[in-house]
């Protein structure tokens, strides 16, 4: 088993950009993500993504290539594929609510996934008020631990008294370790095998990988008695076998006596670093550890046969057995173990100068408090499938606690932490077969977990027939019950291919095979592939690209082309799917449709009143908008309390009043238009008269004699004879010439009568 946790926040700007791109290419992007010329089967289609579906209907896009059967479900439906003939990437999440739990729920979940799909579920972890506690001491008994081992003999009673503040049910256990009893980890000299301390003239225990000494017990006196009998041992190299012993203490539950309902603490005490995996090669041990219990008479028998466990294996076994590790190390080794505990979920590290009782008690109590206040989960997937799945964990912390990475700290007893867990599948197995995978959700330090059973569907069933290619039989398989494939009924009539083998490939009244857009194979049209789109139909007479274009996109990018007509998406209509069915774009600021003076057509207002204009028919320069209610009777607007007869009378009255007012408004409007017309006519006539008068005045001034004051319309006489003035009735002009008195000369001229205002 391999575990990991994964969660990564995205920037808001990136989300906005992605949302814009998705909105701009929603209709075409999904189809392009599903369709590809390389798709030849249902399994290939469903691996393109969870949004894709495969149509196994026999007569779907008759004659088109198989890859056209893979598309978005909506596009398949528009092109004629019925829903019951669609193989979908359905994701299912089933929760078993029958199993009761006090801390972790639910206990079992079943998920069905396909490649590219994902599913989410929630796991709740509740903190109880008080827990029973199991504490197992795993102590390094090498020679350097002699002084520290003496201090441990008084820990039991003091720790029991201190833990009564947090639990009333404390059980203790004990085990010891040194290192693998093989060279070069220990001396193999015959005198040092049984007594590795013989050089110091003292008696000590033989080296051992792990020795289980005392099973879990609530008898503190027994724990103290066993501790007092412990003796040290010795080895050669510096590192010890602590991690090897820790795994045995975790997996040997029956021997150690871990209680199912208790919080389990495993305290490892050492003053040296620990061996890691592959270190056993120095002793010729190359067999990896199997992660199982190998105790015989409480002695670890696999120490000389298997390598030290890897940190990944140890981490899995600690989580699997709900054990919370605590490391109490000497300060010189603190930095080494500080890097180690980062790889073990929930591990706590304590730095101690000397392993004195007060220091150990504080370390255990603090670890237990942290165990209760910090809630985290770890998700593990089987090794065989870990590369094909991914997991994301997001905690929802209760009030008063804080979220840190994928955990909540500061959780109080009685509070519940929720974890939103998402699991997704990358791919199928190499052979493409379905598989069952087991995933575990471990709340760290808890003795309960959630088991997730994942069913990976990589194969297609394609309904009861199981024919995913849509063809039950090949057209060239010969006869069927004495009737050839070419002679079977087709739309109510028989076609005999004896005279023309390609007759079944010609439409009625046509002499061209497959409408000139395909080839006839075995009496059946196989349509050609076009870069413009799909050619299909029994005679290749249909396609999905001979439809109107809108702004350079087929069907405006809001539909699919079926038999030369656009089948629009929901919310759009029109020949090119350019008209929205929603009328929200025609609503004016007051919420009315086209201001109540028009109709919404193709998302735009068409004003029914010729006097109105504007996007919402809101402009009307020659009319006044009466916003007051036409009905002055308040009861007409609040007729709920009236009888039926009174309400009908009120509605009739209001209707008549509104109709009369509308008629009056129309008359007033018509009279105003007539008056305006007459005023314009009168003004035009007046202007014409003024222009005529001015033009005649100018003409008179041009034709009169040039010269000062004498230029007027009257008659003028010389100063020699003013005795004769012609009247308007006489047109006689007399010229006289002075001569000697005795010979006067006089001439008279008669002039016809002329208008008074004519000029000479």
Largest sheet: 8 strands, mixed
CATH architect. name of the domain at 133-373: 3-Layer(aba) Sandwich
Which fold does the CATH topology of the domain at 133-373 refer to?
A: Rossmann fold
Q: State the share of residues found in helices, binned by percent.
A: 10-25%
Mean pLDDT rating? 77
**Percent in strands:** 15-25%
Counting H and I runs of at least 4 residues, what is the number of helices?
A: 15
- Structural class assignment: alpha+beta
Number of strands: 39
Considering the protein shown, what is the CATH homologous superfamily of the domain at 133-373? von Willebrand factor, type A domain
* CATH class identity of the domain at 133-373: Alpha Beta
Q: C-alpha Rg, in Å? A: 53 Å
Low-confidence stretches: 1-29, 477-498, 625-635, 652-664, 707-725
* Distance N to C terminus: 134 Å
> Outline, from the CA principal axes?
elongated
Organism: Xiphophorus maculatus (Southern platyfish)
Keywords: Calcium, Cell adhesion, Cell membrane, Disulfide bond, EGF-like domain, Glycoprotein, Integrin, Magnesium, Membrane, Metal-binding, Repeat, Signal, Transmembrane, Transmembrane helix
Protein name: Integrin beta
Biased composition (Basic and acidic residues): 487-504
């Amino acid at each position: 088993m391999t575990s990991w946790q994964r969660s990564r926040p995205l920037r808001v700007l990136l989300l906005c950009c992605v949302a814009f791109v998705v909105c701009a290419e929603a209709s075409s992007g999904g189809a392009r993500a599903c369709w590809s010329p390389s798709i030849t089967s249902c399994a290939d289609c469903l691996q393109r993504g969870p949004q894709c579906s495969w149509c196994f209907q026999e007569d779907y896009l008759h004659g088109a290539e198989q890859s056209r059967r893979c598309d978005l479900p909506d596009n398949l439906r528009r092109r004629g594929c019925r829903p019951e003939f669609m193989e979908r990437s359905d994701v299912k999440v089933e929760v078993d609510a029958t199993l009761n739990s006090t801390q972790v729920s639910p206990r079992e979940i079943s998920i069905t996934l396909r490649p590219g799909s994902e599913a989410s579920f929630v796991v709740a972890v509740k903190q109880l008020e008080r827990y029973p506690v199991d504490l197992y001491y795993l102590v390094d008994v090498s020679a350097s631990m002699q002084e520290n081992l003496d201090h441990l003999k008084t820990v039991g009673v003091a720790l029991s008294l201190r833990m009564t503040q947090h639990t009333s049910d404390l059980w203790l256990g004990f085990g010891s370790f040194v290192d693998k009893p093989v060279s070069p980890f220990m001396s193999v000299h015959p005198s040092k095998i049984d007594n590795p301390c013989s050089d110091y003239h003292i008696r000590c225990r033989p080296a051992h990988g792990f020795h289980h000494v005392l099973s879990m017990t609530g008898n503190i006196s027994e724990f103290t008695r066993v501790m007092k009998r412990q003796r040290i041992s010795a080895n050669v190299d510096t590192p010890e076998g602590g991690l090897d012993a820790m795994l045995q203490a975790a997996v040997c539950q029956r021997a150690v006596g871990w209680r199912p309902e208790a919080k389990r603490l495993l305290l490892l005490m050492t003053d040296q670093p620990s061996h890691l995996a592959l270190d056993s090669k120095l002793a010729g041990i190359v067999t990896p550890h199997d992660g199982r219990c190998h105790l015989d008479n409480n002695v670890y028998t696999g120490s000389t046969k298997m390598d030290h466990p890897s940190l990944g294996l140890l981490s899995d076994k600690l989580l699997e057995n709900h054990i919370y590790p605590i490391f109490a190390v000497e300060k010189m080794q603190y930095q080494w173990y500080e890097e180690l505990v980062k790889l073990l979920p929930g591990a706590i590290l304590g730095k101690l100068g000397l392993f004195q009782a007060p220091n150990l008690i504080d370390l255990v109590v603090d670890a237990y408090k942290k165990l209760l206040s910090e809630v985290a989960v770890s998700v593990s997937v089987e090794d065989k499938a870990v590369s094909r799945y991914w997991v994301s964990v997001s905690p929802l912390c209760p009030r008063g606690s804080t979220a840190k990475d994928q955990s909540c700290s500061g959780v109080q007893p009685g509070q519940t932490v929720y974890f939103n867990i998402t699991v997704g599948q990358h791919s199928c197995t190499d052979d493409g077969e379905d598989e069952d995978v087991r995933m575990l959700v471990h709340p760290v330090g808890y003795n309960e977990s959630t088991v997730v059973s994942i069913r990976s569907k990589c194969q297609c069933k394609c309904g009861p027939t199981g024919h995913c290619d849509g063809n039950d039989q090949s057209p060239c398989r010969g006869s069927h019950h004495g009737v050839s494939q070419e002679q079977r009924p087709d739309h109510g009539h028989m076609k005999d291919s004896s005279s023309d083998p390609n007759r079944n490939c010609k439409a009625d009244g046509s002499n061209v095979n497959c409408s000139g857009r395909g080839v006839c194979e075995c009496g059946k049209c196989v349509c050609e592939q076009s870069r413009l789109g799909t050619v299909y139909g029994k005679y290749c007479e249909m396609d999905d690209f001979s439809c109107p274009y809108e702004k350079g996109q087929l069907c405006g990018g809001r539909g699919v082309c079926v038999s030369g007509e656009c089948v629009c998406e929901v919310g759009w209509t029109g020949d090119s799917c350019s008209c929205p069915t929603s009328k929200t774009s025609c609503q004016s600021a007051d919420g009315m449709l086209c201001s109540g003076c028009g109709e919404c057509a193709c998302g735009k207002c068409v004003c029914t009143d010729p006097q109105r204009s504007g996007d919402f028919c809101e402009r009307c320069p020659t009319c006044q908008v009466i916003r007051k209610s036409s009905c002055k009777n308040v009861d007409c607007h609040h007729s709920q309390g009236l009888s039926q007869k009174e309400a009908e009378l009120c509605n009739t009255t209001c209707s008549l009043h509104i109709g009369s007012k509308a008629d009056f408004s129309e008359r007033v409007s018509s009279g105003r238009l007539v008056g305006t017309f007459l005023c314009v006519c009168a003004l035009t006539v007046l202007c014409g008269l003024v222009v005529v008068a001015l033009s005649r005045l100018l003409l008179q001034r041009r034709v009169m004699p040039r010269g000062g004051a004498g230029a007027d319309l009257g008659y003028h006489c010389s100063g020699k004879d003013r005795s004769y003035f012609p009247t308007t009735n006489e047109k006689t002009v007399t010229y006289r010439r002075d001569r000697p008195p005795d010979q006067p000369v006089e001439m008279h001229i008669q002039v016809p009568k002329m208008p008074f205002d004519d000029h000479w």
